[in-house]
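Dear support,

Our group has been running a series of protein-ligand predictions, and this particular one with protoporphyrin IX containing FE is the one our PI (initials K.S.) wants archived with full inputs and outputs. We had some confusion internally about which version of the output was final, so please treat the block below as the authoritative record. The input we submitted was:
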Amino acid sequence: MNTIAFEYLKLLRDPMGVPFYPQVFEALMVLTFALHIIFVNLVIGTTGLSIWYYINRNDYTERLIGGFARASTIMTSLAIVLGVAPLLFVQVIYDPFWYTANNISAWWVLGFLLFIAISFTTSYLFYFSDKKGGNIIWAILSFVFLIIAGIVIHALSEQMISPEKWTKWITEGDKINLYGNKLHGINVVRFLHFIIPSFAVTGVFMMLASWYYRGKEGYSESYLNWLANKGRKMALIFSIIQGIVGAIWYALEIDVKGFALHPLTLLGILAGMSYIGYLMKLKEPEKRAIPTAIFTFMVILLMAITRETLRNVKLSNMGYSIGDYKLSLDWGSTVLFLLTFIMGIIVVSYIATIVYKLGKSNKKVTEMPELDTFGKIAVSLPVIWFIVVAGFGIILAFSNGALP
Ligand code: HEM
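Confirmed final output from the archive:
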């Protein structure tokens, strides 16, 4: 891409600039992407395994499908909600690239919403049908649409970091095709790198489930042992496959100047290799479920950092840096944003605590007085937040003349 075209791209940035240091948005984008992809992996893994176990049925797998059917509906909503966060950040600091990539495949971007809606609906239909033995067609449909949605968002991610190919993509011979009806940036290896871990992450989830339900009425020792061992085996096998796919992806990107030996890239590779080594040596998977889950999260976060390093290096080689984005510091909105973020963590922690405790015991939530104060805080905070945000909105609307 020539310099003039690139200068033009820079002009497409928001003229207002960014309200806070772009590196902070970048860090939050990577963190929230890591969380997003964990839940994407869990929903793909639990749905895919449900189909596999439906074909290879026995008492244990039948029981597990029931659990997966329920879990995958929740995982899907978390994957969607946690997808919004990196979406907002990527639009803020990489806006010219993201919007161009979206325009090039506009129909697919619209289709993405439909694919997610179909996947979510069929995931629920599978869950409801499970009580009557499960209708696997719903799980298959849900899985297929998840993969299609994944391909769309993957293509956009690849398209945005390939501005040198944009012209080629929108021209057909001597004609220009601006219909947005094609997906161009499909990089199979990169896509697999985000999909294969689904089964490793679900393996860790099975280890956690075995640890969590130990001692609970109705869960036999032999079932929980089977669950933990199966989980460990899956985590190991799919992490090895993931390592191979990662190595191929790395080899394909080796020409990107400054990427292959970047300290963050090397850190990501080292994390991946240490993880495989750790899983190989792992004994008593149920007892080590929590450290394994923490290690898994760290590795995924480091992979997300390596992914961002690739984008950062690739675009800065072409002259774009998020560091030179115009800065219009706005402390008010930044503080409000951070307070909202902290409030969100408190509210979600309360819900997570309740779910954790309810699942472990046979008590009702009304029989847990120790959570009363926490509950009152978690319920009051959103009310206060709403009053503050709506109040600000109304005051500002009156003071700048938007409202009479
Ligand atoms: C539930 C179905 C979904 C699946 C299977 C899925 C899958 C993926 C995958 C595989 C990637 C990485 C692509 C790559 O780097 O090549 C990704 C990234 C991303 N996803 Fe999702 N996703 C889903 C839902 C969503 C939703 C509903 C949103 C937004 C509301 C979203 C927003 C994003 C964003 C913004 C990125 C890129 C972040 C960045 O560039 O740093 N995803 N997703």
